[in-house]
Amino acid sequence: MAYEHEKLAEEKVFKDPVHRYIHVRDRVIWDVIGTREFQRLRRIRQLGTTYLVFHGAEHSRFQHSLGVYEIVRRIIDSSFSGKPEWNEDERLVALCAALLHDLGHGPFSHAFEKVFDLDHEKFTQAILLGDTEVNAVLRRVSPDFPQRVADVVGKTYKDKLVISLISSQIDADRMDYLQRDAYYTGVQYGHFDMERILRVMRPTEEQVVIKSSGMHAVEDYIMSRYQMYWQVYFHPVSRSAEVILIKILHRAKELYETGYTFQQDPVAFRNFFDRTITLEDYISLDEGVLFTYFQLWMKEQDPILSDLCDRFINRKLFQYAEFDPAKEYRKLLQLDSLFRQAGLDPDYYLVTDSSSDLPYDFYRPGEENERVPIYLQLPNGELSELSRSSDIVDAISGKRRTDHKIYFPEDVLEAQQEDNPLYTEILQLLKS
After folding, report:
1. What pLDDT is recorded for position 365?
2. Which pLDDT value is given to residue 367?
């Protein structure tokens, strides 16, 4: 039997708190899971710094990736199987893309990417196409199979229906992370009726659509996503931890570039600092490595790096205040000046941060990063864009919500305000 169609002698299952069981029968999927690059995802948290707010949020991208695979497997094998719009030859590429869509995430992914100007999707494709164990498994299917999977991840694959399973406004990726993140954070916001949505999903040539009778389940899903972003993903305390994490990496990079002699040579970061990153450098880095360096850097002679690492490791986070950059830019300039006079470097101790989300959008031709909308399939077979039928979705369509905050070390300001009157002035200004 060809490797592409080979089944395991006995089905393998992973016990999962969200989907109950993850089912694996395909030899290719089982072999991919066992690769070094996929196992690395066990050492990358799904929610970055959120564990410092919701202590249960210790789950990994490994768990999430398995969950996305399981949802796509159920859609294909239960909802799409036998439908003329679904090409069964695309089954394996869809399953592999679902399993591997997050393969290129780095430690504390979005913060790490921001500092070193990286793109996890490009690294996902590089791992799929490079000299890796994952590539070796995929090539056993066919010489062009790694490229097909990479094209799905890069959203350039010829079959747009396959792309929409993993990347759209209602896809397996979102359906898994909303439920999984809600479960591990202990909140109720991310729960919705996935079983109902899976039953009303229909394949078309271009994308997955939803049978019109399932509209209310989709409304619930969209509102769940909206609530999760503002109650969990953009939680200001989690953002505070991420601000400190970013500043640690910035400080280490700045010290390296100015010739500072580290007590512990940052060997694992050298190529990142020098922008000579190899694929092996990237794959070798995980959150355990970062934590090790942060522990060591707590003892560095540089007071800023030492303090920031201590704050991150021991959860001594910055306080925050509401900030409107359009109206309070003069206030920020004043604070910057006061911080410098008080001996606090505003580049590291006065940080503005913005969070923004667009919960749902309809198609606007020509716009950058335009979103393909969710379509309802009417009883007569015609398609209707979701917000035209749903008053709830129409109310939030195209409405971007943005939140701005300013972060600062309140503990330092309060502890030393008697010794330095500037600190009192700073606190009054921040709280005004």
Report:
1. 43
2. 44
Q: Between the CA of residue 94 and those of 20, 118, 150, what are the distances in Å? A: 22, 25, 11
Which pLDDT score, from 0 to 100, does residue 264 have? 87
pLDDT of residue 355: 87
Cα-only R_g, the chain: 24
Token couple for 165: 């399973």
One domain for residues 415 and 297: no
Beta-bridge partner residues of 209: 202
- Residues in the chain where the model's pLDDT stays below 70: 362-370
Note the pLDDT of residue 362.
62
Counting the structural domains of the chain, the total is 3
- Same structural domain for residues 145 and 94? yes
| Same domain (yes/no): 196, 47 | yes
Statement to judge: residues 162 and 143 lie in one domain: yes
CATH of residue 241's domain is 1.20.1250.30
The pLDDT tens digits for 279-334 are 999 999 999 999 999 999 999 999 999 999 999 999 999 999 999 888 888 999 99
Residues 327 and 300 placed together within one structural domain of the fold: no
- Cβ(100)–Cβ(219) below 8 Å: no
Out of 233, 267, 296, a domain closes at 233
What is the model's pTM?
0.94
At residue 111, φ and ψ (nearest 5 deg) are -65, -45
Q: Tell me the C-alpha to C-alpha distance, in Å, between residue 256 and each of 96, 253, 281, 290, 307.
A: 40, 5, 18, 16, 17
Q: Are residues 151 and 219 in the same domain?
A: yes
CB-based burial label for 117 (10 Å; 0-12, 13-18, 19+) = exposed
Which residue range(s) make up the domain with 288? 235-313
β-strand 208-211 against 375-377: which pairing, if any? parallel
* Among 108, 104, 96, CA closest to 37: 104
Distance (Å, whole) CA 252 – CA 75: 46
Domain end point (choices 206, 233, 260): 233
Q: What's residue 364's pLDDT?
A: 45
Per residue in 100-115, pLDDT tens?
999 999 999 889 999 9
**The domain that contains 116 carries what CATH number?**
1.10.3210.10
